[in-house]
Amino acid sequence: MAKARRLADRQVRSQSRRFLAEGPQAVREALAHPSLVVEVFAAERPSDVVRGLRQAADAAGVAWTEVGEDVIRVVADTVTPQGVVAVCRFLDRPLAEVLDAGPRLMTVGIDVRDPGNAGTLLRCADAAGCDAVVLAGRGVDPYNPKAVRASAGSLFHLPVIVSPDVPGTLAAVRAAGLRLLAADAAAATDLDAVDRQGLLAGPTAWLFGNEAHGLDPELVAVADEAVSVPLYGRAESLNLVAAAAVCLYASARAQSLTAGGAA
Amino acid sequence: MAKARRLADRQVRSQSRRFLAEGPQAVREALAHPSLVVEVFAAERPSDVVRGLRQAADAAGVAWTEVGEDVIRVVADTVTPQGVVAVCRFLDRPLAEVLDAGPRLMTVGIDVRDPGNAGTLLRCADAAGCDAVVLAGRGVDPYNPKAVRASAGSLFHLPVIVSPDVPGTLAAVRAAGLRLLAADAAAATDLDAVDRQGLLAGPTAWLFGNEAHGLDPELVAVADEAVSVPLYGRAESLNLVAAAAVCLYASARAQSLTAGGAA
């Protein structure tokens, strides 16, 4: 239990390669992959929802320990963990393995610092049908409790890669046949233009930068295209999550139209 | 100065109809409308950026008071107000006046509770070229310091309406000739379908609900169409800001294509 609490610390997480999934939604998603779950801690007086999770854990042979509601609260980062927390094994995958599967749409978040943004980026990428998400550079890790929560289960839905090596990541993704599109508020070419040129229909990896500084110019220069989201009003830019949602959905639509046309 | 500090409180704000714009970006946007600004408080040793703002304030005849950097920090909600805070007059507008101008694209956020989401919604709406934003129902007010900050200046860019009366707001918006589209994750009709049907090209008001519960079913029923954002992957939904960005940009694109075709 004391060990579980220490998983709030990034170094402890990366040494033990374990993290916490907090609350019924995250625990349910984790239990869908029982081999990921080391142990579940639940309140002694479980809610109906938690009782349902207990059945799933028992069926999968996952260890289940009842503790006081106050203990759950101490372990969890969440204000209201709703009576259940799971200790999970890291689930990130090697980039090479993910690229071998022939992804058509990927998100690469570079130096994303805010855990809420990292988790929401995962959720957006999942919603838009991305085949994988890379968190690259010196950003937050996807196992940060706030990131896990913000991902709303998406951390368990699609392959996640953690890669400090940004140039190596981009080179490998390009070598796998994906076009690198850098989301850059300063780019002269906008999303509607690349869409009209048909550039969104093929295999694509979108690069999104740090929430405060965007992408480094040298990374923008490495990409196949730098693409801005058109600004119809007077805002100087969109925030990271909104820009990512607009770009990823433009790709998802273009790719689904192409797939539909080919069928 | 003590009065300025109390503007962190919503009741004090609504009684005095004044709020704080914190940091150089927000103060610069405020000073673009000098009649909105009551007074600026700035650090005694201003940065170059703040010195530039001083010139703008002097040119516009806006009162400028130098105080200690520590005083600025006490007044401001922001961790790093960067040496400048402006006391501003409320700038929300009557709905009737805004509707008289014949808006073609509007955002209506209903019961939006999180100030960061409210501000980011304003920023998205501005970027997508909305003619106005209504914050309706029992949500956060746009003058909350976190909302002002998250709007990244957009609070000053487009008309904002604050309206506790949701049914009255929707009736007025519809009477002004806008189609009411309710963003609803459970809707059978998705965004691509309404786009293909040409429903996005005309005057449109998008309704977005509370971040935790979405729109009340009775509000969805009142709308002309309930529209879901398509989910290509396994995510159960998008978060408020991502969904709004995707919907508003679909409308912006459809309206700009129509305008282009007519030109």
CATH class of the largest domain in chain A: Alpha Beta
Gross morphology of chain A = elongated
Radius of gyration of chain A: 20 Å
Rounded average pLDDT of chain A? 93
Provide an overview of this structure.
Chain A folds into 2 domains: 2-89, Ribosomal protein L30/S12 (60s Ribosomal Protein L30, Chain: A), CATH 3.30.1330.30; 95-262, SPOUT methyltransferase, trefoil knot domain (Alpha/beta knot, 3-Layer(aba) Sandwich). Chain A contains 12 helices and 10 strands. The first copy, chain A, has helices spanning 2-5, 10-16, 23-31, 48-60, 69-75, 95-100, 115-127, 145-150, 166-175, 191-196, 217-222, 240-262, and strands at residues 18-22, 37-43, 63-67, 84-89, 105-110, 132-136, 160-163, 179-183, 204-208, 225-227. Chain A has a 6-stranded parallel sheet with strand order 7-6-5-9-8-10, sandwiched between helices. In chain A, strands 1-4-2-3 form a 4-stranded mixed sheet. The A-B interface holds A 120, 123-130, 150, 152-154, 157-158, 192, 229-239, 241-246, 249, 252-253, 256 and B 120, 123-130, 150, 152-154, 157-158, 192, 229-239, 241-246, 249, 252-253, 256.
